Structure formats: structure tokens, C-alpha cells
Predict the 3D structure of the following.
Amino acid sequence: MAQCKDIAEEANQYIDGDLPLRRRISLYFHLVVCKCCRVYLDQMRDTIRAVTVFKPKEAINQDIKSLAQRLREESQK
Amino acid sequence: MISSNKNEKQLVKQLLAGDPAAFESLVGDYQNLMISVARAIIGEAFADEVVQDAWMSAIKALPKFESRSSLKTWLLHIVSNGAKSRLRREKRQLSLDDGWQSESSDKFDGRGHRYDDVLPWEDDTPEALLANQELSQIIEACFQQLPALQRAALTLYDMEGVKMAEVCNILDISASNARVLLHRARTTLHHTIEQYRNPK
């Protein structure tokens, strides 16, 4: 059966449904008996949720308005 | 889906007509995403240039845009292809080895069991989350510290909902590498949020 360390390493694949069935079942049985790992999995889901809510953006150096204007001018040529 | 397709067709029409607001909306919506992809493939030094070239190619090709894919996917492929050819020209190679340390082994005993309890976090609604300015800043700062490839994988898969196969295609990486990047990015963010939620 899977151990806590396996949950820490494979939690994301478990959440994304990206594990082979046997492995998924093995993690599932560990989760049934281990409260810590259930909490850890919930925290990981919350992390993903927080990222999708806050949507941090890539920092950019360029001014959007001036780039948009340049592209517009280019399109008119 | 239909309405967003309709909106895109409308936006393309406005762009072809030279509407300044349409150009601002297009650049505002996609510049960060395109920079993210370029940085992940070619690195910081060439990313701005690659994205500018991609925009120029996209604007020239816009009259031929046929809505077979979404505007977002179309733009991401243009910038991805531009970055990949630049990478070949520069003969550079970006590594996935970013000094990542997996979950520290001192958290587990010899049989892989946790030593300490994991304490639950406060259960916030999306609205309560959004109102939490401090957490927002913490996540933003942590995100900016992630390596470019991890940021791009997280942005495309978790925030933009791009399918895994498409993420691999855009970033030119294998599915297993994409999974590794996503795992590292989410785990780093999890540690940061954990320190904020349950400070020791």
C-alpha cells in the first residue's frame, strides 16, 4: 500500500486523474486510513483553486497601449 | 463556447477594420501569456523580441485566420513556433533542472509515514479568497519566483485550462516533464500558502 511520502509525491497526478488505476487504488486506500494525507490532498486542491482564483500574471516589460498602437499601424500598411 | 467564438469573430472583424480598442483588448488579453510561453522556451533574454515578432506575424496572418482553433491557441502556437526556431538558431538548451528539492525527507520516517500532523486550512469561498489581499500578494510573489517553465506550465494548464497534450506541444516538452513542472510549481505554492496559513 502507498505511504504518506507517495501521497506527497503523487498528489497532483492523483488530483488530475493521471495515474494508472492500480496506483490510484493504492493511494486511495492510504487516503482512507490516513487523515494527514487527506488534509494534505485538500490543501493541494485549495492551492490549485487559489491559483485559479488569483491568476497571478507573468510580469511584462512592455507597455500594452504602445504595443497595441504599433500593431495597429502595422496592420494598416 | 458559441458566444466566445462569436466574440472572437467580432474581435477579428474589428481588428481587420483597424479599431484601436480591439488592438488594446487583444494585446491586453494575450501579451502576458505569450511572454510566459516565450520565456519558458527561449529564456528571458530573447523573449520580448520573439513575442514582438510573433505579434507581427499574427497581425499579417490575421486576414487568413479561420477560427479553426481559438485565437488564444492560434497566438500561442505562433509564439511557440517562433521561440522554438529561435532556440535552434541560438543553439541554446534550456534545462528542467532548476534546483528543485522534493518534499524534505525529514518529514517522513523510514517507512514513508509522516512524523507530524497536517493541519487543515481555513475553508474559504472564492469570494473570501479574492478579498484576501495578503494571500494574493504572497501567491503573486511566489509565482514570480518560480522558474519560467514552471510558470508557463502552471499558467497554461491550471489557469488557462489548456489540455495537457496542447501544453506539451506548445512548450515542446514530454508529458512526463510537463507533469514534473506542474507538480513542482503547485508544491512550491502549497508550501508558501502553508507557511501563511499555519505559521510555525
Notes: Chain B has two domains: 2-90, 105-197. The longest helix of chain B spans residues 20-42. Chain B has nine helices and no strands.
